[in-house]
Amino acid sequence: MKLGALVLALLLALPASGSDVVSVERAQLFPDGDTAAVEVEGGCWLSESRCIRTASEIERLRAENESLRQQAGDVSFTVAIVALLAGLGAGFAVARLANR
After folding, report:
1. Runs of H (alpha helix) within the chain
2. What is the pLDDT of residues 23-72, one digit of tens each?
3. Which end of the chain is less enclosed by CB atoms within 10 A, N or C?
4. Structure pTM?
5. Residue 34 has what DSSP assignment?
6. Rounded distance, CA 26 to CA 39, Å?
7. Among residues of the chain, what percentage have pLDDT more than 70?
8. Which residue, among 22, 27, 34, 23, has the nearest Cα to 6 in the 3D structure?
9. How far apart, in whole angstroms, are the C-alpha atoms of residue 29 and residue 43?
């Protein structure tokens, strides 16, 4: 049981070939009867290249979000009220036509 948990900890600490998983700084085994818990601290579960790709994607999405916010602009209070009244008027007209 302890040997299996040790093997599990070593597998967690070694990078998987061809994957984006890398080693961790520290792993502890906590045997508990027939089972064992592994606590992992530090390090990154993703490879450095994957972390960089993820960070650049997040930055791209933030820039895109900011660009969309700037393009949308602010809606004035008057425009919002006019749109609300037009919607209510159209709804009322449709309801009246439906009752005929």
Report:
1. 2-13, 48-72, 77-99
2. 666 767 777 777 777 676 766 566 677 778 888 999 999 999 999 888 87
3. C
4. 0.38
5. T
6. 8
7. 65
8. 27
9. 17
Cβ burial 36-46 (10 Å sphere, 16+ → b, else e): beeeeeeeeee
At residue 39, what are phi and psi to the nearest 5 degrees?
A: -110, 125
Q: What is the DSSP secondary structure assignment for residue 2, as one 8-state letter?
A: H
The residue type at 12:
L
Give the number of C-alpha atoms closer than 13 A to the C-alpha of residue 82, restricted to the C-beta side. 5
Query: Using CA atoms, how far apart are residues 88 and 71, in angstroms rounded to an integer?
Result: 28
C-alpha 2, offset from chain centre: 36
Q: Contact, 15 vs 47, CB < 8 A?
A: yes
DSSP string of 55-67, one letter each residue: HHHHHHHHHHHHH
Asked if residue 86 lies in contact with residue 78, where contact means CB atoms within 8 angstroms, the answer is: no
